[in-house]
Amino acid sequence: MAQGAIARSGTTGAPAQLRRERALRYAAIFFAAGLALHTADHLRRGADSITPEVFWGGMVVTVAGVVAIVAVLTRRPLAPVIAVAVGFPSAVGVSASHLLPQWSAFSDAFPGGQVDALSWAAVLVEIAAAVLLGAAGVASLSRGPSSGSGRRHRPHRTER
Q1: Contact (Cβ atoms closer than 8 angstroms) between residue 87 and residue 62
Q2: pLDDT-based confidence at 14, cuts 50/70/90?
Q3: Cβ contact 31:65 at 8 Å
């Protein structure tokens, strides 16, 4: 009876780690969709709508994003680290480029710009997906007491 309760609860190390890895894969897929949507929106708006700096900044985010997505989906050991290293900076960079008022050649400022709801949706989806990718990477790296960290739980005197 007790074994059945443990098996169903999903609180053992292996199932918890599997859930974190699955969440990381879903986040990578969501980020791929956001990246594709945002790239398609830039193509739709035309190359003349951005500066060369925004173009090359976007290329860096895209290449790094593809590396992270491939690493996660092929289950590379460093995938969670890559997800963190790509996810959070991508969210910050895309936010700085599109959500802040015009501040430099790296700006493609949406506030006060001539962009439609589709452009806003594409950027917001990519930013949300990038944050989720980074967060899923952090979660996948975390080692709680049930993650199989190699240390055994030693009960406190009152637990014996």
Answers
A1: no
A2: confident
A3: yes
Whole-number Å distance between alpha carbons of 132 and 52: 28
* DSSP three-state, residue 11: coil
Find tokens 């001539």 and name the residue.
114
From residue 125, alpha-carbon distances to 29, 41, 118 in Å are 12, 12, 10
How confident is the model over 77-120, as pLDDT tens digits? Answer: 999 999 999 999 999 999 999 999 989 989 888 998 889 999 99
Mean pLDDT of the chain: 85
CA-closest candidate to residue 58, choices 131, 104, 108:
108
- Cα R_g (the chain), whole angstroms: 20
How many whole angstroms separate alpha carbon 100 and alpha carbon 121?
16
**Between 157 and 26, where is the model more confident?**
26
